[in-house]
Amino acid sequence: ANPRFYLSLNLSPMHILKSNLTERLLMILNNHLIKPIQLRLEITESTLLEDKIKASKQLQKLKNAGFKLLLDDFGTGYSSLAHISKLSAHTLKVDQTFVKQLTGDEPENALAVIRMIKKLSDEFNTDIIAEGVENEQQRDALLENGYHCAQGYLFSELMPLTELISNLQNQRHH
User: Fold this and answer.
1) Cα distance between residue 110 and residue 46, in whole Å
2) Which among 9, 31, 108, 147 is most buried, taking Cβ atoms within 10 Å?
3) CB atoms < 10 A from the CB of 58, how many?
4) What does the CA dihedral 80, 85, 86, 90 come to, rounded to 10 degrees?
5) Contacts of 107 (CB under 8 A, 6+ apart)
6) How large is the average pLDDT for residues 102-121?
7) pLDDT tens for each residue of 36-57
8) Which residues does 88 contact at the CB level (< 8 Å), separation at least 6?
9) How far is 56 from 87, CA to CA, in rounded Å?
10) What does the alpha-carbon distance between residue 8 and residue 174 come to, in Å, rounded to a whole number?
11) Strand residues in 1-159 grouped as ranges (E)
12) What would you report as the CA-atom Rg of the chain, rounded to the nearest whole angstrom?
């Protein structure tokens, strides 16, 4: 399996609070010969607000089982710094709001936020992904500031699963 290729699954607060979540995910993955490392679990900061203790225990259980946790829409939620220090996510996904502002009215302010989040990511030793990259100017600004992973329409628009599989198969043969 290609370590750079993985699937992401958004988990809602309802999912996080189910006591058998880890076991169910492991069973489903096992049935399809998929390893936990190939499935990234995306959570938002609001996920942690419902029942902090139960959510924290569940997330730790998922991490112990080998799942990678991504903190989605980072920087837009309530009490971001408190959550990053407690959650110890593997990856921060920087909200597209900040990326869009790189080519907006006040790019200097957006750059300051982008740089601050990158420093925070470095301090917590997490990976970082910029969301919503739509043009080369945004991509270049992110690259210049240490962002090496991004997602958005600049790289690919949404596509049906069959087209994705076909594209991946073509890449393997080249």
Assistant:
1) 23
2) 147
3) 21
4) 90
5) 101, 141
6) 92
7) 989 999 988 776 666 778 888 8
8) 63, 124
9) 7
10) 26
11) 7-10, 39-44, 68-74, 91-94, 127-130
12) 17
Distance CA 41, CA 63 (A): 10
Specify the pLDDT at position 2. 66
Measured at the CA of 90, the angle between CA 108 and CA 102, to 5 degrees, comes to 15
pTM (2 decimals)? 0.80
| Three-class DSSP category at 150 | strand
Name the phi and psi angles at 139, rounded to 5.
Answer: -60, -45
Instruction: Tokens 């750059």: give the residue.
Output: 111
Q: Which of 24, 51, 53, 50 is nearest to 39 (CA)?
A: 24
Separation of alpha carbons 92 and 147, rounded Å: 11
* 3 state SS of 145: coil
